[in-house]
Amino acid sequence: MTGLVIAVDGPAAAGKGTLARRLATELGLPYLDTGLLYRATGRRVLDAAGDPRDPAVAAAAARALTPADLARSDLRGPAADMAASAVAAIPAVRAALLDWQRDFGRRHGAVLDGRDIGTVVFPEAPVKLFVTASPAERARRRWLELQAKGTAAELSVVAAELAARDAQDRQRATAPLKPAADAAVLDTTELDAEAAYATALALVRQRLGRPL
Q1: Which pLDDT does position 2 carry in this prediction?
Q2: Which of 70, 84, 90, 119 has its CA 20 to 30 A from that of 170?
Q3: Which reaction does it catalyse (predicted)?
């Protein structure tokens, strides 16, 4: 599978990260959660008491990223989510991170998940999946994740935060969240993790036109 690039896009809490990691393991490919790049950029801005919506500040943070930034333990949560979405809307930030993502994928092939992998980062990828689920189901999953971590949160608040993030991601002028024209759309609303994975693997096989 060397050289194969699989693009997995979709909104938060749809299950794309879990699917992408499992596909990477199954296919023996490197895995990259591209959202971590934007989360780490946003966190750098917040650490400096800056505004994630400030193009100059955010672009400087993106250019200064190191591998250690991606290993931080504070890249999840409402503040990190919104900061990531804010910096991701800035063209200079996306430009600063684009080559990084493409170099990762082209070195040995990879499974990459994000919001614009199939539309911008690797539009030529032979396999593109767009993983989605209903807003209510995605909010429930995110709420359960928070509960499992011991983080108190109201389901209604989690749903509102996801809706705000969705709106920001879909309405941005640069690389908005949307399925690539040739992406296979996988709705996981009614699927458990195993069923979603089996369906995703079948779609990959179908797109490649050969068994894996």
Answers
A1: 59
A2: 70
A3: CMP + ATP = CDP + ADP; dCMP + ATP = dCDP + ADP
CATH topology of domain 5-208: Rossmann fold (3.40.50)
The ranges assigned to domains in the chain are 5-208
| Residue 140 tokens, joined | 């429930």
Q: Dihedrals φ, ψ of 93, to 5°?
A: -70, -45
Q: Is 49 marked within a binding site?
A: no
Rounded Cα distance between 165 and 212, Å, is 35
The pLDDT value recorded for residue 188 is 97
Whether residue 132 is annotated as binding a ligand: the answer is no
Assigned token pair, 204:
């990959």
Residue 12 counted as an annotated binding residue: yes
- pLDDT recorded at residue 77: 83
Confidence at residue 175, expressed as pLDDT on a 0 to 100 scale: 87
Q: Distance (Å, rounded) from C-alpha 175 to C-alpha 48?
A: 26
| Residue 15, annotated as binding a ligand | yes
Residue 212 has pLDDT above 80, yes or no: no
Confidence of residue 210 (pLDDT cuts 50, 70, 90): low
- Rounded Cα distance between 94 and 116, Å, is 10
Write the DSSP symbol of residue 119. Answer: I
Put residue 150 in one of left, alpha, beta given phi > 0 → left and psi -120 to 50 → alpha: left
pLDDT digits (tens, 9 = 90+) for 109-128: 999 999 999 999 999 999 99
pTM listed for this prediction: 0.86
C-alpha–C-alpha distance, residues 127 and 23, integer Å: 12
Greatest Cα pair distance, the chain, in angstroms, is: 51
